[in-house]
UniProtKB/TrEMBL annotation:
Organism classification: Bacteria, Bacillati, Bacillota, Clostridia, Lachnospirales
Ranges that cross the membrane: 9-31, 43-59, 90-111, 118-136, 156-177, 205-228, 240-259, 266-288, 294-310
UniProt keyword Transmembrane helix present: yes
UniProt subcellular location: Cell membrane
Coiled-coil intervals, chain numbering: none
This protein's UniProt keywords: Cell membrane, Membrane, Transmembrane, Transmembrane helix
Native organism: Faecalicatena faecalis
Protein name: ABC transporter permease
Membrane topology annotation: Multi-pass membrane protein
InterPro entries in alphabetical order: ABC_transp_permease (IPR001851)
Length: 332
């Protein structure tokens, strides 16, 4: 499994480097400081969500409500600041708590009621989106305190603040997955849920915990996006669920669970971000971005299946001569 993980990450990193080299050759603007900061800032949000989503995919689950959790948490924080004149940082903490609670709700539906995670989170996505529209009445909340704008717009040594948040999240999640017993349990659950229960692993608790972590990270991404825009909008994070899943698949994480790494998910998110940036730099109609993302998703999902089919055919071809020889001996 370790060799498979390394191969997937190496392949994804190679594709990313190839994309960046190609973009540099054909566009003199790609390596400019302004453009690189733009790429890093965009990557920060999809990267955070992808790293979070990777935790669920490792146990064979997913969360399609991450975008709406981000939106609702950001809107809630914005309302606390603009309407109730709450301390901006306290409002952000309440938003993070709200996102965590929403994640726990998703986890309870999946783990305790044994609902399919995709179906359950599609339903919760509609619920969270509806609550957001009720709170905002479809309008943007613009009276966001300037004191928190640095979290979304600021830079430290030329590196955007959201990107630094993303790196911290990646480090924490990698430590959780690679250096703790919980991380080993995550892979065990992804490989066989029933076997994990027999081993005494608290499967339901870990599943709920991971949904809570995803809710927290989604809320953080939504709140940072509010700080970046200076307003809380109901459209925040609409593309994050599918892009995060695509990033994970591109990074070598199997949808069935048990194989992959959060680092691969981040590299996959970087590929998506670079492709989106290249579309803009090359003057391609931005409406093609969705089509390109769709092609990337389908290609990433189809590639492992194609490899499996090709390997299977090779084994059959290698096995046929032996079977023919055995058949010939039997006839003689």
């Amino acid at each position: 499994m370790n060799k498979l993980l390394k191969n997937n990450i190496t392949l994804t990193a190679g594709v990313l480097i190839l994309l960046m080299v190609t973009a540099t050759i054909f566009s003199p603007h790609f390596l400019t400081l302004f453009n690189l900061q733009s790429v890093m800032r965009d990557l920060a949000f999809i990267g955070m969500i992808a790293v979070a989503q990777s935790l669920l995919l490792l146990i064979g689950e997913l969360d399609l409500s991450v975008g709406k959790i981000a939106t609702l948490s950001g809107v809630l924080s914005g309302l606390l600041m603009s309407v109730l004149k709450c301390n901006p940082f306290l409002a952000f903490l309440i938003g993070l708590l709200a996102g965590t609670i929403l994640g726990i709700m998703n986890g309870l539906l999946v783990a305790k009621l044994r609902l399919n995670s995709m179906v359950a989170t599609i339903g919760m996505q509609s619920l969270y989106g509806g609550i957001t529209l009720v709170l905002t009445k479809g309008k943007a909340i613009t009276d966001i305190s300037p004191s928190v704008s640095f979290l979304g717009k600021g830079n430290i040594a030329g590196i955007p603040m959201p990107f630094l948040f993303m790196l911290v999240i990646l480090a924490v999640i990698l430590f959780l997955v690679k250096k703790t017993k919980t991380g080993r349990y995550i892979y065990a659950i992804g490989n066989s849920r029933e076997a994990s229960r027999i081993m005494g692993i608290r499967v339901e608790f870990i599943r709920i915990m991971l949904f809570a972590i995803v809710g927290f990270i989604s809320a953080l991404a939504g709140i940072l996006y509010v700080a970046r825009l200076g307003s809380a909008q109901a459209s925040i994070g609409n593309n994050w669920p599918m892009n995060s899943i695509a990033a994970c698949v591109i990074g070598g994480i199997l949808l069935t669970g048990g194989v992959g790494s959060p680092l691969g998910a981040l590299l996959g998110a970087a590929i998506i971000s670079v492709i989106s940036n290249v579309i803009v730099l090359f003057g391609v109609n931005v409406y093609w971005q969705e089509a390109v993302n769709g092609i990337v998703i389908v290609a990433a999902i189809a590639l492992p299946s194609l490899v499996t089919i090709i390997r299977g055919r090779k084994k059959i071809r290698k096995g046929n001569p032996e079977r023919l020889q055995q058949a010939g001996k039997g006839e003689s």
